[in-house]
Specification:
Distance between the termini: 46 Å
Number of domains: 2
CATH topology of the largest domain: Rossmann fold
CATH architecture of the largest domain: 3-Layer(aba) Sandwich
Shape: globular
Number of helices: 16
Strand order of the largest sheet: 2-5-6-1-7
Strand content: 5-15%
CATH class of the largest domain: Alpha Beta
C-alpha cells in the first residue's frame, strides 16, 4: 500500500491541463523563472514539480506524438534515475528538515534551509542545461526564509527555474506570489482517484476504494493516510457522533476519547473528518442541496453558529497538537462543542 515518492513517481493523473501549461510555456521559449504550484495536500503537486524538473534537466525532449504535451520521462532514463536517487547536480530540493534533537520533521522552513538557493541558481549548470529548485511546502517558510527566497526571485539567472509547491499559497508573502506564475491544481475526479487507488490498493475491494476516494476528497495522499490511520472506521465513528446529536452523553464522549487515545494519529484524523463532515452538511444546507441527515444536522443551529463551532474545533486541534496537550481531554471538549449547553434550539436558515 503505497505510492512512489514524488521525485520517483512516473505517473501523473488528473492534471493534464497543468502539465500542458508547463509544456507550452517551455516550448514557447518564454518560460517564467518561478512557478507556484498550489492546491490541496496530497493531490500530486510535488509529483508534477519533479516531473517538470526531470523534463527540463533532460533537455526538454520532444514527446512522442501519442503523448502530446506530456512531460513524462521513462523510469529507465538516466535523468529520471538520478533525480529519483536525489543525485542530480542541477536539482536542489528544499523542504522542512528533520529535527535531530526532537526526532521528528520540523514544521517550519528556516533561513538556513533556503540560504543555498540563490548561489545554487547562479552556478553554471553542471550538464549544460537548466538549474532547478523544487521548494516543497513553501507555506512553511518563516519570515527570514521567505525574504531569502524573495531575493532569488528578484534577480533570476538565465535558464533557472524555481518551483514552489504549496498547500496554502495565501500564507506566502504577497511579493513572492506576485513574482511567480500561479498554476492552481484541483483535487482529482473520481475516475482518476479510482485509477490511482487501484494501483496503490489493488487488494482493497472496489466499493471500499470508492468510499475511501469520497472521504479523501480527491486527494490520493489523503486516501492512503486514511487507510494507514483506519480512516474509514473513524469516519463511521464521526457519523455515529453526528447522528446522535443534539444529545451526546458525557459517558459516550469519554468512550470515544478513550478509543481514539489508543492511537498516535487517530486524534488528528477524527478531528479532520469531523470538521469535514460538518462543513459538508452546512455547505450543502446553504446551497439547498443537503440530504435528510445533513439538513437535520445543519438545522440544529443557525448556519453562522456552525461556522463558529467549525473554527473552534480547528483551534482546539491546532492548540492540542502544537502544545502537546491531552488528546483525550481535547476530544471530550470538542464533542461538548457539538452538544453542550450553548447549543441553540433547532433552527432552519431560510
Amino acid at each position: 500500500m503505497s505510492l512512489e515518492p514524488p521525485r520517483a513517481n512516473p505517473i501523473l493523473l488528473g492534471h493534464e491541463a497543468a502539465e500542458a501549461a508547463l509544456h507550452e510555456a517551455a516550448r514557447s521559449g518564454r518560460l517564467h523563472h518561478a512557478w507556484l504550484l498550489a492546491g490541496p495536500p496530497g493531490i500530486g503537486k510535488a509529483t508534477l514539480a519533479f516531473r517538470f524538473a526531470r523534463w527540463l534537466l533532460a533537455g526538454a525532449p520532444q514527446a512522442a506524438e501519442a503523448l502530446g504535451n506530456s512531460l513524462a520521462l521513462p523510469p529507465e532514463h538516466p535523468v529520471f534515475r538520478r533525480v529519483a536517487a536525489a543525485g542530480h547536480a542541477d536539482l536542489l530540493t528544499v523542504e522542512c528538515a528533520y529535527d535531530e534533537k526532537r526526532h521528528r520533521q520540523r514544521t517550519e522552513i528556516v533561513v538556513d534551509d533556503v540560504r543555498t538557493i540563490p548561489g545554487f541558481l547562479r552556478l553554471t549548470p553542471a550538464e549544460g542545461g537548466w538549474r532547478v529548485v523544487v521548494l516543497d511546502g513553501a507555506e512553511a517558510m518563516n519570515r527570514n526564509a521567505a525574504n531569502a527566497v524573495l531575493k532569488a526571485l528578484e534577480e533570476p539567472p538565465q535558464r533557472s527555474a524555481l518551483l514552489l509547491v504549496s498547500n496554502a499559497p495565501g500564507r506566502l508573502l504577497p511579493t513572492i506570489r506576485s513574482r511567480c506564475r500561479l498554476l492552481a491544481l484541483s483535487p482529482l475526479d473520481m475516475t482518476a482517484m479510482g485509477e490511482v487507488l487501484g494501483r496503490a490498493l489493488p487488494e482493497m475491494p472496489e466499493a471500499e476504494r470508492e468510499k475511501l476516494a469520497l472521504l479523501a476528497g480527491g486527494s490520493p495522499g489523503r486516501a492512503l493516510d486514511l487507510v494507514a490511520e483506519e480512516g474509514v472506521a473513524l469516519a463511521g465513528l464521526v457519523g455515529e457522533v453526528l447522528r446522535g446529536l443534539p444529545e451526546l452523553p458525557v459517558g459516550r464522549a469519554h468512550e470515544v476519547a478513550d478509543a481514539l487515545g489508543r492511537s498516535d494519529t487517530a486524534f488528528a484524523t477524527f478531528m479532520d473528518l469531523l470538521r469535514a463532515a460538518l462543513a459538508a452538511a452546512v455547505g450543502a444546507a446553504a446551497r439547498g442541496g443537503a440530504d435528510s441527515e445533513q439538513a437535520r444536522i445543519a438545522g440544529l443551529r443557525p448556519l453562522a453558529a456552525w461556522s463558529d463551532v467549525w473554527h473552534a474545533l480547528g483551534r482546539l486541534q491546532d492548540d492540542t497538537e502544537r502544545f502537546y496537550l491531552d488528546k483525550r481531554q481535547a476530544i471530550v471538549s470538542g464533542l461538548s462543542l457539538l452538544s453542550g449547553p450553548e447549543r441553540a434550539q433547532p433552527h432552519r436558515d431560510q
